[in-house]
Amino acid sequence: MEMMELMLFPTHFISMILSKIFIWITIKSKMMDLDLY
User: How far, in Å, CA of 27 to CA of 33, rounded?
Assistant: First the structure.
């Protein structure tokens, strides 16, 4: 049981970080688009 939790935790953590980075990149690109115009 503990082993399963240990295996599940990192993937959840990584996906959380990836989603945050993805959102940050999209927001950043939108701001860049606004700066261009």
Answer: 10
pTM exceeds cut of 0.70: no
Torsion on CA atoms 26, 28, 32, 33, rounded to nearest 10: 30
- pLDDT given for residue 7 in this prediction: 67
Write the DSSP assignment of 1-37 as a string of letters.
Answer: -HHHHHHHHHHHHHHHHHHHHHHHHHHHHHHHHHHH-
Distance, in Å, from the CA atom of 37 to the CA atom of 21, rounded to the nearest integer, reads 25
